[in-house]
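**Reference record**
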Amino acid sequence: RYASFSAFAASVLGERVESYAFETRFADLVDEIVGFEAARGFASFEDPNIRVRSRRLVRLNSEFMDACTRLHALHQLLKRMHAGQVKPVIEATLPYFRELSGLLARQNDPMKTDEVRAACAATELSAFQAMLPQRVRETRRVLETSAPESLLDFDTTMELLYRFIVEVLRYTQTYASLADHNHVLERSVTKYVVKTNVYVVAITFLRTAVAVAGMGAFWIATDWPSGGLAVIAAAIACALSSVSPNPPKLVAQMAAGASLAAVAGYLVTCYVYPNIDGFPLLCVALAPLLAFGAFLAMRPGTSGYGVGFCVFFCLLAGPDNVIVYAPDLLINNGIAVVAGMLVSCLVFTVIFPTEMPWRIGKIKRDLRRQVVPACTGALTGLNQQFQSSTHDLMFQLRMLLMKRSAQHRDALRWMLVTLEVGHSTIDLRNEALDAPYAARLQPGWRTSIDAVTRDLAELFEYPDMSRLTHALASVETAIRIAKSLRDSLRENPERRHQMQRILSYLHFIRSALLDRDAPFYAS
């Protein structure tokens, strides 16, 4: 993933990626982020080498999200500057982008091991970061005389570039630390927050309860000897399909796989077990069947068949210490398993269909509303919570929506603008918190920042043109006050630079709100 991201970032910084291709690749990164966390959780139980690196892996994923968000912000700003014909800024910043693009492209040398690649990248990025401020000051002095009206765009671009380098450097250093069995970063605590809509949870619970209760009622009413296994099969089907984008299809595939498992189990019980003796022969007999099931489970189009075959073959015909030859019981149990899953499939299809528009609408609203805690929540750990929750919600939408559809693209654009504005707002709030002097120098400063966060939260919770206009007005007011404060701090370079950073975040938020491709204008 590190090499792939480096190559992608090099292409973006070199302006070799079109907007649509960028959106498509960024959507795939969402799957990688959520899948990485899921794989880490499973592997931590099984592999001691993963377990001793578990905290670093969580940190690595969090820093990867930060780097992706910064890269998206840079890409959007470059796109808007090209659209706005800000030629002096583009020409002034182009050498920095090309140099960083070349640096990242060099990290894909196949002759280097992962450890060497990460160590070299960390060294080169640190050197580039160290010399960047001095070079930027020299470039800025030229622009002050040649194009003073473009300084705000230049400052914003270079601030975002510097932040991107910081995030990529952190990501690289954490990646390099994985080579060590014990590392100081393992003491750090990074949280990955999963966000699920309460209505979706309630519907999942209800459909599971209906499926299990219906199968249980049939068992009790008929006094079916294998009814208990039918209830268990219904519960297993509900559990395994709870996060599937199409539960009826998955459960139907599992039922077909279970039918095949019942046939295979009958043949093994009647003809294989009686003719083998000892553990080695048992392994030889079962390995082809389990390998076949695993092969099906690993392929996206046949995963349901493979899961159903593996799970229920072991349940129906798994070897015991004392093998019981009872083909009639096995056939009855096989029928019960298939019946339990077919009942679940019927419940998912008729009573609680997955493709309910309200479900997609609720998740999309939750996605937009991630900006609300970014504007009003406690700052401690807020960035990690915001990033992980936003990516998790987008992953849920990607699972429900047809890829590359209009709905999918709309959801993706909401995610991207949510990341842009939410991340910048968190940066803005952190910088404003570290600048208490601003309120003393300018009485309206605190009020203007509060108005920005309040109006942004309202805009993302209930998007419309009126709230967009209010949010833009609040941001522009804060920009005017920030410019006044910056100009009054000429005798204090450190505070002046901090106010310049605040101004850059405000300017970037304003550019995101004015972007005609933003979903506000389609709402």
About this structure: The two ends are 35 Å apart (CA to CA). Residues 2-187 form one domain.
